[in-house]
Structure to design on (348 residues):
């Protein structure tokens, strides 16, 4: 009988120890190392809203405008944009171009990019009136600041964040606008822009070549705020010709295409115990997905935040358009950002 009691006691103790060990390992798969904080990848950056598409209309060649309706929507200011989750799960960013005082709906527009990554085609062909879309935001990284004068430069669909700015300018404001496009028919909201701007507007078409930016910047006052949204080449041209004393504000919805200065680097994935090499001509995301195919991502351009990962060690070359300075202290977007150091350690 004493032997049976001993066996029962030892068996019970072993089961308790096994359960305790299992709980410890679940808390930290790398035990006996300290448990890591929960991963941050894919966390929504703002409260998601479910809105209904109540209008889907063509407003220029290859451009559609969506009206998204809801109730008590957050207010926004000119320059703000939404993260729109498409039915496929893709996340895309669209500038708000309607009335900031309208809390019942948001208005966005997008141009069809036939050889793009599929988001614009889905909006044009897969989204219809009655479709319910999830949106996040609004967020504003392109706000209209107070300035003694303004110069606006818009290329094609780049007019969308600038249009609400034109509506919001005080009557006494000094400003002028250059609006460029392939043809007049391809330029959304052109008639409204012409009414708003009058003789402050210069319309430039592609057949005329690069717009005369030197003439646009003639007699630019000290402190003039220059706002530009459009193709990469147009924004680079504006940067090169920016007058002394002017401040430049750019809205990008595509990463800089340059790979200049890229170098290969080592990437340690602490949770999974893997060490990878990211080639100079590839991205951290692509390399990681080769080893961990379920790694979440969406825009691949450094805008949506789906691929954000915590950085445990190493120096990051941040190339995104999203993270705050505080977030950049300990995380990165692996779709576009790289390593300044020879090695990065991620909480993956």
């Amino acid at each position: 009988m004493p032997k049976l009691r001993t066996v029962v006691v030892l068996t019970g103790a072993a089961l308790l120890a096994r359960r305790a060990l299992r709980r410890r390992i679940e808390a930290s798969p790398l035990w006996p190392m300290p448990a890591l904080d929960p991963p941050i990848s894919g966390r929504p950056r703002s409260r998601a809203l479910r809105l209904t598409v109540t209008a889907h209309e063509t407003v220029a060649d290859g451009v559609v405008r969506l009206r998204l309706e809801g109730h008590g929507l957050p207010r926004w200011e000119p320059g703000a944009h939404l993260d729109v989750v498409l039915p496929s799960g893709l996340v895309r960013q669209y500038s708000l171009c309607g009335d900031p005082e309208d809390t019942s709906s948001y208005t966005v527009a997008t141009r069809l990019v036939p050889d793009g990554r599929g988001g614009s085609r889905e909006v044009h062909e897969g989204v219809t009136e009655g479709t319910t879309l999830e949106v996040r935001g609004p967020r504003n990284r392109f706000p209209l600041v107070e300035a003694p004068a303004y110069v606006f430069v818009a290329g094609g669909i780049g007019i969308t964040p600038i249009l609400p700015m034109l509506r919001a300018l005080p009557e006494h404001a000094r400003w002028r606008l250059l609006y460029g496009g392939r043809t007049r028919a391809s330029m959304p909201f052109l008639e409204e822009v012409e009414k708003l701007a009058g003789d402050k507007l210069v319309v430039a078409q592609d057949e005329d070549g690069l717009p005369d930016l030197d003439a646009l910047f003639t007699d630019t006052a000290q402190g003039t705020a220059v706002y530009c949204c459009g193709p990469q080449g147009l924004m680079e041209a504006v940067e090169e010709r920016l007058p002394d004393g002017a401040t430049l504000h750019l809205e990008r919805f595509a990463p800089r295409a340059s790979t200049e200065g890229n170098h290969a680097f080592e990437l340690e994935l602490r949770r999974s115990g893997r060490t990878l090499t990211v080639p100079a001509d590839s991205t951290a995301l692509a390399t990681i997905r080769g080893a961990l195919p379920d790694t979440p991502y969406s825009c691949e351009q450094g805008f949506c935040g789906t691929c954000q990962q915590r950085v445990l060690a190493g120096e990051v070359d941040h190339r995104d358009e999203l993270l705050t300075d505080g977030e950049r202290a300990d995380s990165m977007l692996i779709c576009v950002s790289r390593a300044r150091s020879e090695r990065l350690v991620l909480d993956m």
